[in-house]
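B., you asked whether I could sanity-check this one before it goes into the benchmark set. Here's the sequence:
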Amino acid sequence: MKTRSRSISTRSSPCTPRGRNRLRTVVARTKPGKPAPIIARRRPSKKPVVNTLRGLVREWREQNYPGASATSQLLLGYWFDRAHRVRGTALPGGEEKDTGRKPGATWSYVFIPQSATDAMAGGSWPDLTRACATALDAMVRENELEQVAPLFVMAAAQDRRANLPEFIDQATIDALPDAARKAVEEAILMFEFLRKREGTNLAPVFTPLLGAIDGAAKGLVAGKLQPLVPGLPQDQRAWFEPYLQGAGSKRPEDYKRLAQNMRKTLMFGSGLMPVGLLRDCLDYALNDSARYTGVFESVREAFRFQGRKKVWEEVNAIYDFRNKYVAPQEVELTDAKAAGIALARWIKGLRLLATAGTQSDGK
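And here's what the prediction gave me:
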């Protein structure tokens, strides 16, 4: 009898005794009566990006999952830090089918990180569970530690602050709104993780900040212009569609497109690329020679605040960097120093947008 040889990878879920990795490749037996050989390796993918992602995930796992949410911690605690009762299969008459274990017995999942398999002293199951105990305890006890030893947690947080990249100021981070601060902390963790890998594209560092930057830009535009929107529909149409008479620095189609984007942003909250909209508003208020009425006149007046030129310069720099390196990505960003400087500028830009426009009649 012939059998067909095939490869079966032991890809385990986080809740199985085999652990989180496909640490072995099992090849189906090729001869009757012979056991299937086990190859102690993980099959590499033919796609380079898959192998790169596996390496990044492995490093993230070995660092005890930096940035994991409280919900993830609770779920890990539920699955790995408590016993689960064995239930038999119910039969007629209230009896239970024999499942190989006594009904009411308990069992537990075993968390097996990659590093634990290398630290095993022997090849038995007890040796493996002992090697995994330390990593599991460090992961699921983090929330408990905050309650029973808050001073220790505070000291650890201060230590993380002391290890911030040299170009990032902690005072600037502390002054940000909560949502923006969390995005910044996530970006810094990603930067510290990727900068150690020579030749790695650092564009993902800026991904957590995209929403924060757009939110701050949208908030500034809405805060300046929304109170000036006319109340009646016919007045709103005239305000958003002024007569574009006279020469400006752009084509008439560009001004119409800008007015439409402002209308979508202010009336429906669905405008395109808020950071680009803010840049265009500041550019019109500062540099455009056109003197249009309606929404354009309001833009010129509303964006007369102290420090607006600095805001325009920073927003313009963030916008250009984003389009070149982040989204869409025209050029790969592999220079860690340049990425760090840009990251610091984005963080400072967030702070600047949060405080911009508090004083009027200035440049």
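One thing to flag: The radius of gyration is 29 Å. Otherwise nothing jumped out at me.
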